[in-house]
Design goal:
single chain, 30s Ribosomal Protein S19, Chain A, alpha+beta, 2 helices, three-stranded mixed sheet
C-alpha cells in the first residue's frame, strides 16, 4: 500500500544528513540500514551501501530510481537454483559444450600457427 499523499514520501533524515556535505563525485559508499527510505532527486549520483540483512549491497542511484525505495535494489533472498536430476543433466551438457568449444578454439589457434 502506498503512503498517503498528505504525509509525503518517507525520507530518513539520517540518510539526508550523511549526504549533506558530500558531492556525488566523491564516490564514497554511504552505508545505510534504512531500506524504507524513498529515493529523492538530491540522492542522484550517490552510491549507497544498502543492508540486506547479511551485508551491504552497493546501489548507484540513477534518474529512473527516483520515487522508489532503497530496499528495492538490495534483494534479501538469494536464489541458489532448482535441483533434481534434470538440472544435473542440463549442467553436465553445458559443461561438455564449454569443453568442446575450448578444444575447437585450441585446434583453430594451432592451425593458424602452422
Amino acid at each position: 500500500m502506498s503512503r498517503s499523499l498528505k504525509k509525503g514520501p518517507y525520507v530518513d533524515e539520517r540518510v539526508m544528513k550523511k549526504i549533506e556535505g558530500k558531492s556525488p563525485a566523491d564516490r564514497v559508499v554511504i552505508k545505510t540500514w534504512s531500506r524504507a527510505c524513498t529515493i529523492t532527486p538530491e540522492m542522484l549520483g550517490f552510491t549507497f551501501g544498502v543492508h540486506n540483512g547479511k551485508d551491504f549491497i552497493s546501489v548507484l542511484v540513477t534518474e529512473e530510481m527516483v520515487g522508489h525505495r532503497l530496499g528495492e535494489f538490495s534483494p534479501t533472498r538469494k536464489f541458489v537454483r532448482h535441483g533434481g536430476k534434470m538440472q544435473k543433466d542440463l549442467e553436465a551438457a553445458a559443461k561438455q559444450r564449454e569443453l568442446d568449444a575450448a578444444k575447437a578454439a585450441k585446434a583453430s589457434s594451432a592451425a593458424k600457427k602452422k
